[in-house]
Design goal:
By secondary structure, the protein is α/β, with parallel strands linked by helices. It has 2 domains: 105 residues, Formyl transferase, N-terminal domain (Rossmann fold, 3-Layer(aba) Sandwich); 90 residues, Rossmann fold (3-Layer(aba) Sandwich), CATH 3.40.50.170. 28% of the residues lie in helices and 25% in strands. The protein is built from 5 helices and 11 strands, in the order E-H-E-E-H-E-H-E-H-E-E-H-E-E-E-E. It has an 8-stranded mixed sheet with strand order 3-2-1-4-5-6-7-11, sandwiched between helices. The longest helix is centred in the last third of the chain and has 24 residues. 37% of the residues are buried. Bound molecules: 5-O-phosphono-beta-D-ribofuranosylamine. 5-O-phosphono-beta-D-ribofuranosylamine binds next to helix 1, strand 5 and helix 5.
């Protein structure tokens, strides 16, 4: 019998390709993230992300089969609660979550967003960063609050915009950094080093007045 503590449990929410989920699974496989995926949850039953885990770990439903957003989010929340996660990890989940859902998991739910928040909340961030003439762009991991992309930012990676950059080239470069950023923040989370207190992020007991900036070689 093992005397090791049970692995921290992650529930992951996805709607698309699942490349961030893939990076999290790779970190777990490599032994650099001591955690276990206990479910992958989606509003898109056919999304690629679901295929990355065994069928027993998949949950999905179509929002149009529910009376309204709150009904769907209640069912999603009940399915998540049933797997008893320690952390809820939004990784390309493209549907707005209602306030009751967010409050249910408040302080335990993270999201990755492809911009240097608070710049460029919402969609189409790479194009908007180029149109704004930004010299720096990147990605952020933040706590989820009811207001979209507005929760306390924990950590960011910066990508310097190059001459001739397109939204597609920038997206590729930012995403490559996301695959390093998210597992790193999850390491802090599962080690009990990360908390949300009074709407700010706290790491190792210190309030993060500005997000941690992480650097990974491109
Ligand atoms: C990522 O760029 C992430 O920042 C954003 O949605 C995208 C998800 O991609 N929230 P994937 O599904 O992880 O490949």
């Amino acid at each position: 019998m093992s005397d090791r503590a049970p692995l921290p449990r992650l529930a992951v929410l996805c709607s698309g390709r699942g490349s961030n989920l893939g990076a999290i699974l790779a970190a777990i496989d490599a032994g650099t993230l001591d955690a276990k995926i206990v479910g992958v949850f989606s509003d898109k039953p056919k999304c690629e992300a679901l295929q990355l885990v065994p069928a027993a770990l998949r949950w999905s439903a179509k929002p149009r089969d529910f009376a309204d957003r709150s009904d769907f989010d209640q069912a999603l929340g009940d399915a998540i609660a049933a797997v008893r996660p320690d952390w809820i990890v939004c990784a390309g989940y493209m549907r707005i979550l209602d306030a009751a859902f967010v409050e249910r998991f408040r302080g335990r739910m993270l999201n990755i967003h492809p911009s240097l928040l608070p710049r460029h909340r919402g969609l189409d961030t790479h194009r908007r960063a180029l149109e704004a003439g930004d010299r720096e762009h990147g990605a952020s991991v933040h706590f989820v609050i009811p207001e979209l992309d507005a929760g306390a930012v924990i950590a960011q990676v910066v990508v310097l915009v190059r001459p001739g950059e397109t939204p597609e080239s920038l997206a590729r470069r930012v995403q490559a950094q996301e695959y390093r950023l998210y597992p790193e923040v999850l390491r802090w989370a599962v080690a009990g080093r990360l908390h949300e207190r009074d709407a700010t992020a706290v790491l190792d007991g210190h309030t993060l007045f500005t997000p941690r900036r992480l650097e990974f070689a491109e």
